[in-house]
Amino acid sequence: MPKALFASALVALTTGCGLVGNYDNLPYGHIFREEAAHLTDDASSPICDFSIDYTYLKEDGDSIAALINRTVQREFLGQEFASLAPEVAVDSFKNVYIRDYRKEVGEVYLADRDQSASVEEMPKWYDQTYSMVTFVEEGNGGTLNVTSNVFVDTGGAHPNQWSQWLNFDFETGKRLTKDEVFQASARADIEQMLLDKLIAQQAELNPEEKVETMEDLQQLGFLQFTSMYIPENFLLSQKGVLFLFNRYDIAPYVAGEIVLEVPYEEIGQYLKQ
After folding, report:
1. Of the candidates 187, 157, 181, 183, which has an alpha carbon nearest to the alpha carbon of residue 169?
2. Strands 143-153 and 28-38, how do they pair?
């Protein structure tokens, strides 16, 4: 698909941070799979609630779309699913995930069940949840933004949640990593910029606290085990560059997902042309 047509389709399709509209007439396909998979053949056994809401580029002989799809599948689903057609990849991922749930958890469950006097005594963590949602958007200057949000509950102290962000040149299909987007000589400047943004963000979120320095952030639990860095999770959005730090990347779980936005007027001088 020519770049101009592809971009116009992107504009027509995307609103906010997701996708809307009729996929039949646009360059996207949509796959939704869900299954409540029992741990054993016993219908009263625990359940893994699995769902995946997956958006991909329709290929129709388009080598650029195929290249992007293969890269996205490798990053979001795993290397073993990268070479498959999108629908086959999603179905295979679902089947493997449920198979592994039954294999890895099932043996422990059966042993536990045999030793328990009643269902009420069985641990609750045997019931598990997995969900993934992916989005595609038009980015800045001929880029394509592809993101995934994953939620996994395996019965621990709290669920695990993370997001992954990818950028592509949709004229070549090449993934744009941070080494290809940001000038190497500007690393320290960008890291300082991100630190300043984080301080300002946390000062606004914690008005009762004094948040002006790195030490103040550390008192809140931030950057205790790492210095500020440029994450691989970033998006070249239309308004600016967004930087994502997942839970535990730079702060405790309770701090949640941290997103810092830097307008192009501030960071443009540090981008490779």
Report:
1. 181
2. unpaired
Phi then psi for residue 147, to 5 deg, are: -130, 155
- CATH 2.60.120.10, domain 3-176, yes or no: no
Domain with CATH 3.30.565.40 in the chain: 3-176
Distances (CA, A) of 3 to 10, 59, 169, 184, 255: 10, 15, 10, 29, 40
179-270 CATH: 3.90.640.20
Structure tokens at 168: 């592509």
Q: How far apart are the first and last CA of the chain?
A: 24
Identity (one letter) of the amino acid at 170? F
Give the span between the Cα atoms of 163 and 70, in whole angstroms.
19
pTM: 0.87
Report the DSSP beta bridge partners of residue 145: 137, 167
pLDDT digits (tens, 9 = 90+) for 198-240: 999 999 999 999 999 999 999 999 999 999 999 999 999 999 9
DSSP letter at 254?
G
Residue type, 111: A
* Helix, strand, coil % in the chain, rounded to nearest 5: 40, 30, 30
Q: Are 107 and 27 in contact (CB under 8 A)?
A: no
